[in-house]
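Hey, resending since the last one bounced:
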Amino acid sequence: MSRLIRRSGLTWLGVATLLLWLLVAAAIPFLAGVLVARADEPDDRYTPATRSPRQAVVELAERHFPPDRVAWAVATAWCESRFDLFAYSSGYDPLDGYWAHIGAFQISEPTWAATAWRIWGDSLWNPEVNFAMAAWILDRYGPSQWPYCGRRW
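The C-alpha cells again:
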C-alpha cells in the first residue's frame, strides 16, 4: 500500500481525505432515503391535543376523591400546579436526592415518599399515586398540608 501511495505522489493526508470523501459520497443516497421516509410521517407536534390538562385532573380527582371533595381537589390542583401533573418545585437537593414538592398537589416528597411506596408501591411522580396520596392525606389530616391553596376552597 505504501508503494502505491509513493508512486501516485499522494501523501497519507491526501489518501485520508480521499477516503473521507468516498465515505461521504456513499452515505448521501442512504441519508436522502432516510430523510424522504421521515418527511412522509406525520408530525405530532402540530396535532391539537385531544385532552386538556384540566380534564385529566378532573378524571383523576373523580377516581381518588369522594364526590364531595372533587371540586376541592380540582381547585387545589389548579392553585398548586396549574394542572401540571409532573410539576416540581423548591429545587433539587442532590445530597438527599429528592425534589421537595412534586406532582399536581405539590406533595412534600421527603415527608410522604416512603408512605406512598408502602401503600401504593410506586413513586409520587406517578399521577395516580400523587392523587391517591393527596386523598389519603386529606382524609387523615385535612387540608392543612396545603396551607394556602387547600384552605381557600
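Residues 2-46 form one domain.

Sorry for the duplicate.
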